[in-house]
Design goal:
The protein has 8 helices and no strands. With about 160 residues, the chain is an all-alpha fold. The longest helix is centred in the C-terminal third of the chain and has 24 residues. The mean pLDDT is about 95. It has a domain of about 110 residues: Up-down Bundle (AhpD-like). It is globular.
């Protein structure tokens, strides 16, 4: 069992709600790809300084895109060798994380220009918002990385 579930287990209903949300968002993130969903979770977690979540989602992203690219995304997605479409998606994730009240219709239009439809945009926002919430729980509870799991180096994505 992961340390986050142990820590959150003090409130079983909250743990169940969070896990159900995770499954809804991450088991099938279509129309986003699983790699895009993991990139969002990784970049949001790096932006928030949540080493625990970076250590979990970095390897998950690596299974989709390879170790080198996943590490590059964790350090700074803006300099990673990503398609412009993915960079725009991650720009949204960081904007939702750092300045959610400043989002405008232009932000949504930019995503549409890169081929994201309304469902994809809502999914991206939901995933970013979910990881912002989880990161805050992990950080506030001081959840440590499990023994045997390697920490991942990450940069501030701000």
């Amino acid at each position: 069992m992961s340390n986050i579930w142990r820590a959150w287990g003090a409130h079983p209903a909250g743990l169940e709600a969070s896990f159900n949300t995770y499954r809804v968002l991450m088991d099938d993130p279509a129309p986003l790809t699983p790699a895009q969903a993991e990139m969002i979770s990784l970049v949001v977690s790096a932006t928030n300084g949540c080493g625990y979540c970076v250590a979990h989602h970095g390897p998950r992203l690596a299974r989709h895109v390879g170790d080198d690219l996943a590490h590059a995304v964790a350090l700074d997605y803006r300099t990673a060798n990503l398609p412009a479409r993915d960079r725009v998606l991650l720009d949204l994730a960081v904007a939702v994380t750092c300045e959610p009240a400043e989002r405008t219709a232009e932000d949504i239009e930019r995503l549409r220009e890169y081929g994201f439809d309304d469902v994809a945009i809502v999914r991206a926002v939901e995933i970013a918002a979910y990881y912002n919430s989880v990161n805050r729980v992990v950080l506030a509870l001081g959840v440590p990385i499990e023994r045997g799991r390697e920490p991942w180096e990450f940069g501030s994505q701000k």
